[in-house]
């Protein structure tokens, strides 16, 4: 994962130097010891996804899922980020119903993850626990309904 730490240093900390920010010692060391044009050229999004899948596959009982997750996100993106009038990409009513519900399920998941992350960073752990518990309570029902629709 050193490559990802370097990318973080390069894309987050390096611009901070230009603004006069003080860098953490590990970021300074990483920026100073990395050499060569290839080392400073970040991998593409697709390469990073493949690297994550390869890392996951190398673990005991590891299951690569990033590549299919990215493909899934591309498919649902129009639903999750459509305008208020909706998207016209899918004409078949059952496909629209299935993908619309799937977008709702995963939109709920990302909303909950965002809420939990924000309130934990704000040191409101009890609120984070309540949000997570509420999500877990309904998520099983959402997945069951999604599986029913797929059949």
Structure notes:
It is extended and about 55 Å long. The mean pLDDT is 77. Helix 4 crosses helix 5 (93-121) and helix 5 packs antiparallel against helix 6 (125-150). By secondary structure, it is mostly helical. 72% of the residues lie in helices and 0% in strands. It has 6 helices and no strands. The chain has a domain at 90-151.
Radius of gyration: 20 Å
Helix content: over 70%
How far is it from the N-terminal to the C-terminal residue, by CA? 40 Å
Strand content: under 5%
Low-confidence stretches: none
C-alpha geometry: extended
Number of helices: 6
Ordered list of secondary-structure elements with their pairings:
Layout: H1 2-18, H2 25-33, H3 45-57, H4 66-80, H5 93-121, H6 125-150
